[in-house]
Amino acid sequence: MDELIPWLHDQMSAQRLRADSLKAIAAALPHETGAYLVETADLLLAEVDAKRRILERHVSEEHFLHGTICTWCSVPQGGAYQSWPCPDIRDSASPYADMPGYQERWRLP
Fold it and tell me: What range does the domain containing 14 cover?
């Protein structure tokens, strides 16, 4: 599942471009309509930033007994190891499930 993170970064970059396009379109529209589009674009950008912070925290690591684990979700002291990709990463990808390249194995059961 090594391709999930690069794919997710690509989707977020595309979302950032869509938000920038909305802002450009908003500049040519009447104030009220344009303001709504700018607000929507700002929300999209905030979503992307939040997802990027989630990706920064959730890192995969090879464990000698448990395979690939999420270092953020695993609690080695308690013997709890979360396999990779963790539910948070899978949830971050779920809004893009209809986009090309999404793999069903990334979906949460």
Answer: 1-57
Determine the Cα–Cα distance for residues 63 and 78; give it in Å rounded to an integer. 15
Report the percentage of the chain scoring pLDDT > 90.
74
Specify whether the CB–CB gap between 40 and 18 falls below 8 A: no
User: Is residue 78 in a domain?
Assistant: yes
Tokens read off for 49: 């930033």
In this structure, is the dihedral angle defined by the CA atoms of residues 39, 45, 51 and 57, taken in order, positive or negative? negative
Instruction: Let me know if residue 16 belongs to a domain.
Output: yes
Residue 97 near residue 107 (C-beta atoms within 8 A): yes
Residue 48: count of CB within 10 angstroms of its CB: 19
Tens-digit pLDDT profile for residues 24-43: 998 888 888 888 889 999 99
